[in-house]
Design goal:
With about 425 residues, this protein is of the alpha/beta class. The protein has two domains: about 210 residues, Rossmann fold (3-Layer(aba) Sandwich); about 190 residues, Rossmann fold. About 35% of the residues lie in helices and about 15% in strands. It contains 16 helices and 13 strands. The strands form two sheets. A seven-stranded parallel sheet has the order 3-4-2-5-6-1-7, with helices on both faces. The longest helix has 20 residues.
């Protein structure tokens, strides 16, 4: 299938050709026709599957078709709600690319920066607003945002909204928008609270599910280094000396850990910057821009800061620390190998992280290959640990076993089930 078979108008087709788009991804092929028919969408898709284009392209086409009838309306017609500033910025950039030949206006608002430029954009009148929950509610309470004439509502990364504590804000926003609207709901995972929220928001939705969250992209080459914690810094420096690694996104669990890794890399002459919640918005945007431009070779990030980062031709993801929630591993390595491109992901696993690795391999249902190029483990016992789908040998009685993973709490999550199409329930 090609984009030309999806019934898209010429201005959008020309924009897609300029961007080099020829073949839609599975989620685009499934979602675009249904959205153009006016249906609500419930999409379960992990990052990197092309969902931004899946909802942006048909939304632009519908808004453009109704614009001539509406005249020069000044009210907001579409709201795209995202959990992070970086994702909001990237969605707005996508709207600029796909809608470059259309007379539609859009802007993005988020916290951490002065509100005056954002308010000025809103006063000029826009068709599409991309926003994070906090700044949206703030400006709405000040009277700068009115959502009573909304035609489209897109909730992106709903599970991350839950993780970041934004669900109550989302429910407040739902009270501000018309009941009669077209709603597009996307989430990589479907915990129970997200299922309830989707049931409340959507009317007879078309379900779109591609690449289950428990799987990882086939184009991503994964590997594990077993390494003692004290040796991770040396291993990272060794890995980055490989000439074929042009750029690397390195993940840590904490902000302090990200800063420390950057400090070590800079001391060794490797250009690196950190991106996390303690950085100002301007600093985060600058670091991301430098990384995309190739000025900075290594970007070190925490999970929340990195969610939504979309970087073309990213060659390597490095898990400096193994995440304690297995789904987070899938999201992390999904930064590379996007849109069918090849990618690589390596993880540094120390003796305290073996339980986390077991949980990850149970989730993705594969045994990640172990890289034995160099012996980075001072402990022969630790070096011999093979943590695959089969059960690992128990530790000796005189050794304290690894602490259980917090990720075990996720094992009882119900799978993403089928919609029973019941009437919209009351929202809690």
């Amino acid at each position: 299938m090609t984009f030309s078979q999806l019934g898209l108008i010429d201005p959008i087709m020309k924009a897609l050709e300029t961007e080099g788009y020829q073949t839609p991804t599975p989620i685009q092929a499934q979602a675009i026709p249904s959205i153009l028919q006016g249906r609500d969408i419930l999409g379960c898709a992990q990052t990197g599957t092309g969902k931004t284009a899946a909802f942006s392209i048909p939304m632009l086409q519908i808004l453009n078709a109704s614009r001539s009838q509406a005249g020069q309306r000044k009210h907001i017609r579409s709201l795209i709600l995202t959990p992070t500033r970086e994702l909001a910025i990237q969605i707005e950039e996508s709207l600029s690319a796909y809608g470059k030949n259309l007379p539609l206006t859009h802007t993005v608002i988020f916290g951490g920066v002065p509100q005056k430029p954002q308010v000025n954009s809103l006063r000029n009148g826009i068709d599409i607003l991309v926003a994070t929950p906090g700044r949206l509610l703030d400006l709405q309470q000040q009277g700068f945002v009115k959502l009573d004439k909304l035609e489209f509502f897109v909730l992106d990364e709903a599970d991350r909204m839950l993780d970041m504590g934004f669900i109550h804000d989302v429910k407040r926003i739902l009270k501000l928008i018309p009941e009669k609207r077209q709603t597009l709901f996307f989430s990589a995972t479907m915990p129970e609270e997200i299922k309830k929220l989707s049931a409340y928001m959507l009317q007879n939705p078309h379900r779109v599910e591609v690449t289950p969250v428990s799987s990882t992209a086939e184009t991503i080459a994964q590997e594990i280094y077993f390494v003692e914690k004290a040796d991770k810094k040396d291993l990272l420096l060794h890995v980055l000396k490989r000439k074929h690694i042009k750029s690397a996104l390195v993940f840590t669990r904490t902000k302090h850990g990200a800063n420390k890794v950057v400090k070590d890399l800079l001391k060794s002459g490797i250009s690196a910057e950190a991106i996390h919640g303690n950085k100002t918005q301007n600093a985060r945007q600058k670091a991301l821009s430098n990384f995309k431009a190739g000025t900075t070779r290594v970007l070190v990030a925490t999970d929340i800061a990195a969610r939504g980062i979309d970087i073309d031709q990213l060659s390597q993801v490095i898990n400096y620390e193994i995440p304690n929630v297995p789904e987070t591993y899938v999201h992390r390595i999904g930064r590379t190998g996007r849109a069918g491109a090849d990618g690589a992901a390596m993880s540094f696993c120390d003796s305290e992280e073996t339980a986390f690795l077991r949980d990850i391999q149970r989730l993705i249902k594969i045994e990640i290959p172990v890289n034995k190029e160099h012996e980075w483990n001072k402990s022969a016992e630790f070096s011999s640990l093979m943590i695959g789908m089969k059960k690992a040998s128990p530790p000796p009685m005189n050794k304290r076993p690894s602490q259980p993973s917090n990720a075990n709490k996720n094992r009882n999550r119900k799978p993403y089930g089928r919609d029973n199409r019941r009437p919209r329930p009351a929202m809690a």
